[in-house]
Amino acid sequence: MVKMQPSRMFSDASRDGYQVEVIRCPEDLDRWHLVNEYLKLRKQIFVDRLEWPLFHAEDLEFEQYDSFNTIYVVATLNGLVVGGARLRRTDQISGTGQIQYSYMIRDACLGVLPGLPQELCHAIPPMNEKVWEITRMVVTGSRDVSRMILAKINTFLGEEGADTVLFLGSPAFQRMANSLSWPVKQLGPVASNSEGSFQVFECPVRELG
Q: What is the pTM assigned to this prediction?
């Protein structure tokens, strides 16, 4: 694990009416309504606003990586969901049919996901209990919500014994990470499809204190 001095990014995630929670099944079924609201927010942003051709049912956007072993980090402002992200440990497998899925970045590189380019990474990403993946991060409102979500993810992954996390997102993530003195490594080129441009980054889990 990389040990660095904590930055302003890793501050208390609950302030000014904001709260960021880690939600998993089955332990947190009493708060699962927040996950549903996060899935609604994904549909509002990705499908309705950005017009990404993603599967959705009624007002929810979800897919095969939204399974029982997926963990969600959800941000609320006075009880209203304003952002969230999806976490998966990279050594897990889901699906019982002919095609089984590990995690989005790796499956894309293996050619399992026709909608994503295979050249996302220079090498096939690992399946390792010390490596996690962040995808479907969405935020509405203040840019500070992104920092609070990432701070909560960092704390959670540190408690889980993770070393690194892979992030699939906009190339702009590099600029935000640089502004926060958070070292990230690009694992592949900027790729594009009908949904826009994105890139894979590897980020160390940082010790606090």
A: 0.88
Cα–Cα distance, 197 to 42 (Å, whole number): 17
Q: Which two tokens stand for residue 4?
A: 């660095």
Q: E strands of the chain, at which residues?
A: 18-23, 56-57, 60-61, 71-77, 80-89, 131-139, 164-169, 185-186, 191-193, 196-204
For the record, the structure tokens of 60 come out as 């929810």
For 173-209, how does the pLDDT look when each residue is reduced to its tens digit (9 = 90+)? 888 787 777 789 999 999 887 777 889 999 999 875 4
CA distances from 90 to 13, 20, 104 (A): 25, 23, 9
Contact 190, 197 (CB under 8 A): yes
Tell me how many helices (H) and strands (E) the chain has: 4, 10
Give the tens place of pLDDT for each residue, 117-131: 899 999 999 999 999
Can you tell me which residue has the tokens 């990705």?
Answer: 46
What the chain holds in terms of domains, given with CATH numbers, is: 18-204 (3.40.630.30)
